[in-house]
Amino acid sequence: MDLATLAGLIVGIGAVLAAFLMDGGSLGALFHLPAVIIVIFGTLGAATVTTSFSTLANIPNLLKIVFTASNSNSIQQIDSIVALAEKARREGILGLEKNFRQTSNPFFKKAIQLVIDGTEVTQMRNILETEMAYTGERHQTGIKFFQKLGGFSPTLGIIGTVLGLIHALSRVDEPGNIAIAIAGAFIATLWGIAMANLCYLPISDKLRYRHRQETESLELILEGMISIQSGESPRMIRNKLLSFLTPQQRYNK
Q1: Burial classification of residue 252, based on how many CB atoms lie within 10 Å of its CB (0-12 exposed, 13-18 middle, 19 or more buried)
Q2: Do residues 195 and 160 touch, judged by C-beta distance below 8 A?
Q3: Sequence-ordered list of residues with C-beta below 8 angstroms from that of 221, at least 6 positions apart, any chain
Q4: Burial class of residue 157, CB neighbours in 10 A (0-12, 13-18, 19+)
Q5: Which of 55, 74, 137, 154 has the fewest CB atoms nearer than 10 Å to its CB?
Q6: Distance between CA atoms of residues 110 and 152, nearest Å
Q7: Res. 183 pLDDT band, cuts 50 70 90
Q8: How confident is the model over 12-48, as pLDDT tens digits?
């Protein structure tokens, strides 16, 4: 579990609810079913028009990425690559066959396979950079989807409020109920803005952060495996890959 994501949502939503309750509000007043339906399902419908059902089906996986802590460790990756370089120097490139079978990371596995196959360095770089580019495009699909949810949600909230006001003003002959109806109408705007700024947009930014993390990891693997293919020494490869890290990361290794 990614504690930063969970803590952020709890603090953000909790602050809004606590302030509302301190002002004398009631939580029951916030859960106005028509407003919730318009904002959540209307927003989802509008965003779905701009994408595909496959993106919609992928939402659980995207949320899993957001709420799961990243297990990427740059120092461990560097150690693994340097170990491969040392093994290739001792046993030759074909000695990496066992490592290829044991590697679970698809990108890392593909890079090892290219080294074993004796792929020319320029061609190897092109193949791996193309793989990275398509991975980035897949990531951007999820990022943009939640961005769109964050863009449509406030607008659907306003639509819900307008519909509520129309309903309220149609009951102008009932002075005792019109104030309650107007208050209920503005619940839709609240839901629209809250969902956008407390859920959709933060999730989009978290997915972008995860994308940067994975891109850095893939770049490290790419440079390391190309260095092995180029015949560079393990010591030189380690020094090169450590330049990807901040001084603090190098110090804490």
Answers
A1: exposed
A2: no
A3: 77, 81, 105, 107, 108, 111
A4: buried
A5: 137
A6: 40
A7: confident
A8: 999 989 998 888 878 888 888 888 999 999 999 999 9
Residue with tokens 């964050």: 150
Q: Which two tokens stand for residue 213?
A: 């993390």
- The position carrying tokens 């509008």 is 46
Encoded tokens for 241? 């890959």
Q: How confident is the model at residue 94 (pLDDT cuts 50, 70, 90)?
A: confident
Spacing of C-alpha 104 from chain mean position: 21
What is the signed CA dihedral for 150, 152, 153, 155, rounded to 10 degrees? 130
Contact 87, 100 (CB under 8 A): no
Instruction: Give the global pTM.
Output: 0.84
